Fold:
Amino acid sequence: MRVAIVGTGYVGLVTGACFAEMGHEVICVDVVEEKVAKLRSGQIPIHEPGLPEIVERGLAAGRLAFTTSLAEAVVPAQFVFICVPTPPAEDGSADLSHVEKVATDVAPLISTYKIIVNKSTIPVGSSKRVERIVRERLGPGVEADVASNPEFLREGSAVFDFMHPDRIVMGTRNERAAGMLTELYRSLGAPLIVTDPETAEMIKYASNAFLATKISFINAISNICDAVGADVKEVALGMGYDARIGFEFLKPGPGFGGSCFPKDSKALISVAEQNGYDFHLLRGVLEVNEQQHRIIANKVEKVTGGVGGKTIAAWGLAFKPNTDDVRDSPAIAVLQELMDRGATIRAYDPVVAESVYGTLGIERAPGPIEAAEGADAVLLLTEWNEFRWLDFERLRDSMRAPAIVDARNLLDPHTLRQLGFRYEGVGR
Ligand code: NAD
Structure:
């Protein structure tokens, strides 16, 4: 089938490359010329495991192409996927201007039947707005439908998630659109939920809000564990065996981040407010999350006896491992807090772009041990696997004071204490 993808970011690029891998013919369009030029030559602007390989295969097979011309992508397509950003507006609600611009520009290009598919995360009711924009601009006798198809991929395993989805949600009241979308995704063999657009949009927000709630819940429990001397890792294990609870998202840390959970939680609170409901549970989830940044900074204060004038080695800047994405990264929020309290930061992250260090005003080290040379504490913020297997004796000897705050509970406290480190985990 022929697919146009509008927006080649984390979602659009993965979606386009995966559809091409599934055998469809895909043209991706973006407004950033430099990005499109790089993609045409097979250079991938983001770090996502497995993505370079499938982009290369798609390009070589002639099933995947990149352009800056919306018409070139849209005119031959049967589906037009909208994968542009929906950032938070000042008041926390989702800013739909990019989505609306795409709908406005796409509609006049339609002369044969197409399905406009919203893959961007948009608040309940937005598909109707997109549909109105499209219908008002369609030429006489031209047919098109608008559907919602929220994306659930996780950065860091986006290609795998797209190819092995837990479910595919399609929001449309139109049988023809539902049938064509089913065909498009058929080879994935995933459970399909065909529902109305409003429910599809709500499924996406409710899922993200629930996952964010689980993280804030276990962070709150970890803070109580710290106070009473319980071990949150074992608490989570004991909870997780209960099939009603499960093990996922019960890992305490510096809080959730990334481009989705914080913004989508705020957008859902805003949707609730606009409809007369105070979603105080979710407001609490965000409050716990913000507080967690300060709690981790306090742990660094504790092991260093005050961070003013001290050098802290930060391990990890990305909001989670296997991605270079630092949008709303809790690692950066904690480091900002420490800098506000007078600390100097030297950081190492295996994939985050060099420019990020400059923007944050922190020093960049070529490796984790180098970051810790002469430092007063190591602060592990992103659970990159490479931090597990370091020469901790060498680390100890290179530091001014051997102290580690393990904000991800990645390391073994007993071994580190035996080696002479002051060790602070989260809730253990
Ligand atoms: P992104 O910022 O990585 O990418 C968006 C891309 O759209 C950019 O390349 C940008 O240049 C392009 N763009 C903007 N306006 C355009 C236009 N008018 N025409 C063509 N291209 C345009 O964003 P993302 O992380 O891929 O997120 C996109 C949407 O998907 C958001 O609504 C987000 O909430 C949702 N989402 C994201 C994830 C995730 O893990 N990142 C997961 C599920 C859903």
About this structure: The first strand starts at residue 2 and ends at 6. Residues 114 and 144 are 5 Å apart (CA to CA). Residues 6-12, 29-32, 83-86, 98, 101-102, 120-121, 151, 153, 155, 259-260 surround nicotinamide-adenine-dinucleotide (CB under 6 Å). The chain has a mean pLDDT of 97.
